[in-house]
Amino acid sequence: MRTTCTLLHIVLVVVLKLSSLGLAETTTLPGKPSIPYVATRTDTVRDMLWIANVGKDDIVYDLGSGDGRIAIAAVRDFGARRAVGIEIDPKRIEESRKNTQKAGIKDRVEFIQGDLFTTDFSQANVVTLFLGHQPNIKLRSKMLAVLKPGTRILSHQFGMGEWKSDKTMTVRTFYLGMWGQMWNLFKENPRVPDYTGNELTPHEGDKIFMWIVPAPIAGIWRGKIETEDGPQELQLTLHQRLSEVGGTFQLSGNPKLAGRVNVDLWGNHIRFWCQPNNVPYGQSELRFDGQVLENTMRGTMVVKEEGRHQEHEWKAQRGNVGFTGTWEWPCASGPRKVKLRIERNDNKLIATYLDQNQTLPVTDFYDFGGGFYFTLLIGRTEHGIRITDDTGWLIGQAVFDQGSLTGMMEFYPNGDAPNRRGDGKTPQVIIVDWKPRLVKP
Ligand SMILES: C[S@@+](CC[C@H](N)C(=O)[O-])C[C@H]1O[C@@H](n2cnc3c(N)ncnc32)[C@H](O)[C@@H]1O
Fold first, then answer.
1. Which residue from 86, 125, 297, 362 puts its CA 20 to 30 A from 140's CA?
2. Mean confidence (pLDDT) of the chain
3. What is the residue with the minimal CA distance to atom 18 of ligand 1?
4. Do residues 96 and 65 make contact, with C-beta atoms less than 8 angstroms apart?
5. CA distances in angstroms from 57 to 44, 60, 96, 109, 285, listed in the order given
6. Pairwise CA distance, residues 289 & 160, whole Å
7. Residue nearest to atom 9 of ligand 1 (CA)
8. Binding pocket residue ranges, ligand 1, CB within 6 Å
9. Residue 408 pLDDT > 90, yes or no?
10. Mean of pLDDT values over 319-337
11. Residue 198 has what pLDDT?
């Protein structure tokens, strides 16, 4: 008996360990689930929809929708305009449709049998996920490419690598019994609320993460601001890494101001404040607030200078850029040149990394308008990581200005991931300024 219990405990611990890495994702075969079915606890479903403030204007998509509980709750309990579940398993689709019928909301909830990685979900303004770290990372470039800025993405339990969430919540796990679902001591008691669903991390609680899809704002922005002292020219250079944006500014006038900008981006809403580094600290304070619409930003600017407080309208625009071509630079791990080829296909940028006879597609690539960001694991094989001198994560980011790219390249050797799982550990890294040379138009 003791041996059986110990064995069972070991099996359970292994399953839980696998689960904490992702829901033990397997390779996708056509028509087969690549992630196993585990339901989100009903209280966590409500918390996910609550944290995203789901309401009557929202179209909610649950990718990998299981028994349909998230899509149904979005419409039934939060009054969402419409909800769609995408699910590969026909049995779950049938179950979801029955559950929708029971809830009496079948006009506003739809279930599509299909692969979440290839089915269109661009209509969503709320996306919910309970998948795993790897599937989340696999999905994030598509999500940022097709979803409108301001769309809320919710993930139950799993992060998105180095993309920091805008909101995080931990929901304590309600004690159900020795091994949760399997031996739920309370399940026969009708007065105990229904908390059925997963118990991936008993005693720790479920985690909910939320991200706001950022507007793509990398690049060079130029504008004119009418002030009491006459018109002033503004130039901003913005570098974007997912939701993180930083850069520099220049403002004409007397004196001319220049320095760093601190940017806070929330969907389409931008706020930034400029720290001039060519006048004494605190002499001039410039604060901008505005909205981004494709290649135009506009809003109000507040200037505080020597006791004066002025407010002006501002507007800045970004020109069209074309960074397609093949870009070459010296490799971080040896005396040779490596290349990044960027092509446009169907209005979408496609990048490929070229190192001698190696050709690697850069699937985690982000077109942020006047610049881009990408991550690439070099040395990945179908079944793991092949350790060679150049195995590691390459992370690049650049803006395009007058025919050149300038940015930064980071290399994390030995497959050491840059906060890939959000575990807070600082990996070894080589960071260099990146100014690749265009070798083919
Ligand atoms: C962990 S469950 C989450 C279910 C539901 N979203 C919830 O939170 O209760 C993951 C679901 O994704 C489905 N799934 C796995 N791979 C899929 C794929 N490639 N396309 C669509 N659905 C998939 C599984 O069948 C399963 O129902």
1. 297
2. 85
3. 115
4. yes
5. 22, 10, 23, 14, 38
6. 28
7. 39
8. 23, 28, 33-35, 37-40, 62, 64-66, 69-70, 86-89, 92, 115-117, 130, 156
9. yes
10. 87
11. 59
